[in-house]
Amino acid sequence: xxxxxxxxxxxxxxxxxxxxxxxxxxxxxxxxxxxxxxxxxxxxxxxxxxxxxxxxxxxxxxxxxxxxxxxxxxxxxxxxxxxxxxxxxxxxxxxxxxxxxxxxxxxxxxxxxxxxxxx
Amino acid sequence: xxxxxxxxxxxxxxxxxxxxxxxxxxxxxxxxxxxxxxxxxxxxxxxxxxxxxxxxxxxxxxxxxxxxxxxxxxxxxxxxxxxxxxxxxxxxxxxxxxxxxxxxxxxxxxxxxxxxxxxxxxxxxxxxxxxxxxxxxxxxxxxxxxxxxxxxxxxxxxxxxxxxxxxxxxxxxxxxxxxxxxxxxxxxxxxxxxxxxxxxxxxxxxxxxxxxxxxxxxxxxxxxxxxxxxxxxxxxxxxxxxxxxxxxxxxxxxxxxxxxxxxxxxxxxxxxxxxxxxxxxxxxxxxxxxxxxxxxxxxxxxxxxxxxxxxxxxxxxxxxxxxxxxxxxxxxxxxxxxxxxxxxxxxxxxxxxxxxxxxxxxxxxxxxxxxxxxxxxx
Lengths: 119, 378
Description:
The structure holds two protein chains of two kinds.
Chain A: E1 16-19, E2 26-27, E3 43-46, E4 50-59, H1 65-68, E5 73-80, E6 85-90, E7 99-107, E8 110-117
Chain B: E1 3-9, H1 20-34, E2 44-47, H2 58-66, E3 72-75, H3 82-95, E4 101-109, H4 116-124, H5 139-154, H6 158-172, H7 186-191, E5 194-196, E6 199-200, E7 209-217, E8 225-235, H8 250-262, E9 271-274, H9 279-289, H10 297-302, H11 319-322, H12 328-342, E10 356-363, E11 368-377
Helix pairs in contact in B: 6-9
């Protein structure tokens, strides 16, 4: 098993996905195998952070004091340029179909990806 | 062969001082009495879960508390689809001879037993712990995401979604056990507080206390013969990030299999009981099931199609949106109401003909689906 490439879920400013050498499937949720074909050790890769907004929901009612401090915050599903889908935060007012690029920001004590409209 | 032999349902809303076990017991006693059975007749127990009082063996905790010693018992967890998943399992258990009378029961003091924040937090955990939950989404946000996409692809508007909240409230007004009876309009829904856009407060079901139960039996126990004609499930994903395209969701798969299992078509359906955690859930499921064309469910609501006197009356008790949502019991109320309609006991809510009903449950974020046809036999 390869060593884990650090990503934002581990506090590093990076988005990481996995690429299966056997079947070519890409997956975002890290596993020790490919969920499409079962082959072991999919290759870890750093994503560019570029993508297109698939869905967006502006959260106005949060459930914890830590997250409430950020209200309203925009939750996005982004189709990454590399061919996987991920959840992130984004600028308010982003619309479905917008081209976006990721930076990173602090949210409720953690590092999270934050998408802005691509220049 | 299996029959829904009896049903029990408490009012939903506040049950101050009642535990989850209290609410389960109350509903169970009602269902057993309704089936004309004794507690000792129950040889199978299936129960849901309680977020207020989680337990690794809730079915036996309940059986001991209630005072029965079943030969088959365990809990089932499929989120909002749990009630129908248990019914499907009970159907197969009695059909295969494992049990004779299965008690399907759930109840939860979700409103008064914990804070609303705690409920919202507990439910948000259906998300991925690392890749989603750490971003601070809520259950309304998961469905808000789905809603934004559905509206984008099919031209559905927020006003369209509001129609479903208004319809469920209109239906709830005729049920004394519903949590909400004040009439609402589309304008009220549009003006209600934003929760997770495009979903506003009145697009979301409430948090409730309540209990529901039914008995699934091998033979009919009374005059009413309400039979499970066919049912099926589909599970495509857990997390919204991993959800397939809108055209490939599980509801379409489960209804296709349920139609095959029952030999019925959507045109046979006289009454519908469809999961409605949010207005978008109901709109999407109606269209996925084929009860309306894509993007046209709201138009059917406006035309009265899903009203008490319409072609296919829908959730005449008010659904999760207005009867209330106490967890697993929430969608079980849909089945209880369906049974009352099919047996002609729905009082002022009674529809003309509920001889064939379609029920559909959804758990997670459109992750788990159960479709079921019930039929009245003479």
